[in-house]
Amino acid sequence: MSDPVHDLVVIGAGPGGYVAAIRAAQLGLKTACVDKRAALGGTCLNVGCIPSKALLYSSERYAEAKEKFAEHGIRITRLKLDLGAMMARKEKTVTDLTKGIGFLLKKNGVTHLVGTASVAAPGEVAVTRIDGTTETLTTRNILIATGSEPSTLNGVEVDEKRIVSSTGALSFENVPEKLIVIGAGVIGLELGSVWSRLGAEVTFVETLDHILPGMDREISRHALRVFKRQGLEFRLSHKVTGASIGGRGVRLSVEPVAGGDAEELGAAIVLLAIGRRPYTEGLGLEEVGVTVDEHGFIEVDRRFETRVPGIYAIGDCIPGPMLAHKAEDEGSICAEILAGQSGQIDYDRVPGVVYTWPEIASVGKTEEALKEQGVSYKLGKFPFSANSRGRVTGDTDGFVKILADTDTDRVLGVHILGPLAGDLISEAVIAMEFGASAEDIARTCHAHPSMGEAVREAALAAAGRALHI
């Protein structure tokens, strides 16, 4: 092979891929980024994080106008939903952001190619363009950042019309009269909340006996109660064994996980939201010797390098939380390693957020994990019902929970159910990155009145000295 034209070719232009490409270019590496979509940003920006959050925000405003404005002395006599305008706003948000990424790639000198890429050999990436033409890029390093796709379920075939994935649930032409969501994880709860606020009757079918698997169990229990008050219905400890489309709707066969009589549930639309799986189809990984585990994840070392020297992988297609911000951090770190620098990511410091209302956010160890590991801990909790800002806004559901080591007081985990939890969790992440104690948070002055005071009070509670409860 002749001398490589590129220092790095990134396959995938999602949050991990495009960030890696930009950072590599900033560090002086000649970089190309290939993605099959013309619109940059991957699943997250095009059919994931961004459009779903746009709809969550819009639907929150609608529900607020419908149910809460009167409390503030704001009277609306004829409230009307314009779903078309809501969808148009979502699409504009996505389009503006994808164009912004294109600008950033160009600004940093990254070569952007639209086409389907595969690893032809170590140091060679084959690209098939939309018009069928092909070319081979030569490179010193290859970074796979192809992300993930919705998981499937036997007996439930997605057609994106009556039975939809998260992609289809972002673009309904009308609000369905009844929506059944298979799965009560992050994606299902977020999208189910959107359509419930807009008028759909929403029922969740979940195989586990609780919602939000992986989250702190106390948080998930309280969240379940809040969601039920909002009108969401749940069939926990139930599994779906089949689906049939007929007439104007879908019939689901459902039965208890522990055994028992099966039943049929009907809905206009069914959303399959049981998680995501790595997307590595057609990359030619096995042919070049890259190892993939039984779940489809690419195996890498601490430097994100596969068993094949010069081939790296990040994001949803490697083990770890399937989160955009985790992929971004991995992308930056991998690029810095390739440029001769060092870096690492502590997965215990990666926050997770559920953008329902109230929001749910978490970082570090759950109480269940600490018990399982035999770690001695103390906890402090503070409810938003005792927070002045929460009272002012009327957002009083939920609480902040801080877990700290019994002996050292070091913060081990923070879990929040409440308003702006996704923003409040950043304080906890920074505290844990610096090895802070609960007392460090407690002795830090917080603005009044603010939601952040609930974090401080929870830290005070860990020492048995909360001031406002």
List the helices and strands and how they pair.
Layout: E1 6-11, H1 15-26, E2 31-35, H2 42-47, H3 49-67, H4 83-107, E3 111-114, E4 116-121, E5 124-128, E6 134-144, E7 148-150, E8 163-164, E9 178-182, H5 186-197, E10 201-206, H6 217-229, E11 233-236, E12 238-246, E13 249-256, E14 263-267, E15 269-272, E16 276-278, H7 285-288, E17 311-313, H8 324-338, E18 352-354, E19 359-364, H9 367-373, E20 377-383, H10 388-393, E21 399-405, E22 411-418, H11 421-433, H12 438-442, H13 453-461
Task: Tell me about this structure.
The protein is α/β, with parallel strands linked by helices. It folds into three domains: 6-150 and 277-345, FAD/NAD(P)-binding domain; 163-267, FAD/NAD(P)-binding domain (3-Layer(bba) Sandwich); 349-461, Enolase-like, domain 1. 31% of the residues lie in helices and 26% in strands. The chain has 13 helices and 22 strands. It has helices at 15-26, 42-47, 49-67, 83-107, 186-197, 217-229, 285-288, 324-338, 367-373, 388-393, 421-433, 438-442, 453-461, and strands at residues 6-11, 31-35, 111-114, 116-121, 124-128, 134-144, 148-150, 163-164, 178-182, 201-206, 233-236, 238-246, 249-256, 263-267, 269-272, 276-278, 311-313, 352-354, 359-364, 377-383, 399-405, 411-418. Strands 1, 2, 3, 4, 5, 6 and 17 form a seven-stranded mixed sheet that branches. It has a five-stranded parallel sheet with strand order 8-15-9-10-11, covered by helices on one side. A five-stranded antiparallel sheet has the order 18-19-22-21-20, with helices on both faces. β9 (178-182), α5 and β10 (201-206) form a beta-alpha-beta unit. α3 runs antiparallel to α4. The longest helix is centred in the first third of the chain and has 25 residues, at 83-107. It is globular. The mean pLDDT is 97.
